[in-house]
Write a structure and sequence with these properties.
The structure is a single chain. By secondary structure, the protein is an alpha/beta fold. It folds into three domains: about 100 residues, Rossmann fold (3-Layer(aba) Sandwich); about 80 residues, Rossmann fold (3-Layer(aba) Sandwich), CATH 3.40.50.10800; about 80 residues, Rossmann fold, CATH 3.40.50.10800. The protein is built from 15 helices and twelve strands. It has a four-stranded parallel beta sheet with strand order 2-1-3-4, sandwiched between helices. Strand 9, helix 11 and strand 10 form a beta-alpha-beta unit. The chain is globular. The structure holds iron/sulfur cluster.
């Protein structure tokens, strides 16, 4: 039996013993996606974390995602296989900076991408993901919106709303490094391919793409499209599901650097170890959790 098969087997045994569910983001390693009970984007994973009746959640993603699961399901044990798997973009906004920003724009509502710490969520009116950001912003009464922390998603939202969007200058290194020049070059190399990108990409890259959406939105678009070739402008992990769902189609990653080292920090061995030891366990102080859960619940209530 190969090492991967042995780890998969042990994972299944431990999952039963611990009454655990494994949630994995589309950017996780292929074998983790294969081992997961549910693979999804931030929005789908939040819904699963809120709805599951499992006693333990193993969150194969990055820290803010496991934290969101702990916020939504305080009675469950939430494990993050690699505790150092953070999100540099989430660390680009803190409560001191956000409070100063709020003082500058007292009439503005604060919309925070789920890629934020629990403390920042607690300072926000509502959360959003890349799949519902426009809907969340348009659902609010406020005319002005402070949008944290992703400047690229914020600018994308600004193009799809009448509201004034005040953008926090954070970004995702993985998506933001893709330049228009690189993107145009790969498009020229594959003229028959449709290009699909995540809104965390630079605005000029999104403007040059055929389709812009969240990971779940991109997967749906590719499944439903008659085209057979696609240039993919998001993290490489998405190719695993794309290839499985579309055996006859061909995919070109827009850049070989579209790899998030934090997402790849979780491994199958660490996932097994986390369930064996029932740690690293992610918790959120109750005073922060009760404020942060309101911002997440408001988001989840928007259809
Ligand atoms: S891909 Fe970007 S936004 Fe997602 S976890 Fe990695 S650094 Fe954060």
């Amino acid at each position: 039996m190969s090492t991967v098969d042995a780890l998969m087997l042990r994972l299944q045994e431990l999952k039963q013993e611990r009454r655990a569910i494994i949630l994995a983001h589309y950017y996780q390693r292929d074998e983790i996606q294969d081992a997961a009970d549910f693979v999804g984007d931030s929005f789908g994973l939040s819904q699963q974390a809120a709805a599951t009746d499992a006693e333990m959640i193993v969150f194969c993603g990055v820290h803010f995602m496991a934290e969101s699961a702990a916020i939504l399901s305080p009675d469950k044990i939430v494990l993050l296989p690699e505790p150092k798997a953070g999100c540099p973009m989430a660390d680009m906004v803190d409560i001191v900076g956000l409070r100063a920003f709020k003082a500058e724009y007292p009439d503005a509502a604060v919309v925070s991408y789920v890629n934020t710490t629990a403390a920042v969520k607690a300072e926000s009116d509502i959360c959003c993901t890349s799949s519902n950001a426009v809907r969340v912003v348009n659902s609010l009464d406020a005319k002005r919106i402070i949008f944290t922390p992703d400047r690229n998603l914020g600018r994308y939202v600004a193009q799809h709303t009448d509201k004034e969007i005040i953008v926090w200058e954070g970004y995702c290194h993985t998506h933001d490094h893709l330049t228009l020049e690189q993107f145009e070059q790969i498009k020229a190399e594959h003229p028959a391919a449709l290009s699909v990108v995540h809104p965390e990409c630079r605005p000029e890259v999104s403007a040059a793409a055929d389709f812009v959406s969240s990971t779940a939105g991109i997967l749906k678009f590719v499944r439903e499209s008659d085209a057979t070739e696609f240039i993919v402008g998001t993290e490489s992990g998405i190719l695993h599901q794309m290839k499985q769902q579309n055996p006859g189609k061909t995919f070109y990653l827009a850049s070989p650097k579209l790899i998030c080292p934090n997402m790849k920090a979780n491994t199958l061995a660490k996932t097994v170890q986390a369930l064996e030891n029932m740690q690293p366990c992610i918790t959120v102080p109750e005073d922060i959790r009760i404020k942060a859960v309101q911002a997440l619940d408001r988001m989840l209530a928007i259809k």
